[in-house]
Amino acid sequence: MPWVWTLNVDEIQLDNYTFKVEDLIPPKPAIFLLDKVALNLKGASSVTNTPIRANIAFRLNESGTFSAQGTAMIEPLFADLDVAVTNLDLRAAQPYVEPFVSLGIGRILKLLAHVHS
Question: Do residues 69 and 82 touch, judged by C-beta distance below 8 A?
Fold first, then answer.
């Protein structure tokens, strides 16, 4: 039997990180600034049927906020998350919509949801 490697990480913690993502593929570039990124993962593993506890929050393009916390698993695909979105300006995603539909995208003022799959 071949040797199989397993990677287990007890906890991953990021606090107050900033990421700028620029997608130059669409005709009009899509730019996203994620700041105040906080991420906490517990129980991450290369064993795909291991549940991972996650807590993530960030601000998008200096106005909207996104947060999610709960448990997820890769295989079988599973998520039990509480999600909150506030003042999210979706116009940053407009470059992905324009080639297909003439549709103006606006803003999500507040969304609270529980996702279970």
Answer: yes
What residue segments make up the domains of the chain, in order of their start?
8-116
Flag whether the pTM goes above 0.90: no
Report which of 54, 20, 53, 50 is spatially closest to residue 35, judged by C-alpha positions.
Answer: 20
Q: Give which of 55, 59, 110, 43 is closest to 82, Cα–Cα.
A: 55
How do residues 40-58 score in pLDDT, each as one tens digit? 999 999 998 999 999 999 9
Chain segment 74-94, per-residue pLDDT in tens? 999 999 999 999 998 888 888
What is the chain written as a DSSP string? Answer: -------EEEEEEEEEEEEEEEE-SSSS-EEEEEEEEEEEEEEEESSTTS-EEEEEEEEETTTEEEEEEEEEETTTTEEEEEEEEEEEEGGGGHHHHTTT------EEEEEEEEEE-
Q: Which of 67, 60, 66 is nearest to 31 (CA)?
A: 60
- Residue 78 contacts residue 70 (beta carbons within 8 Å): no
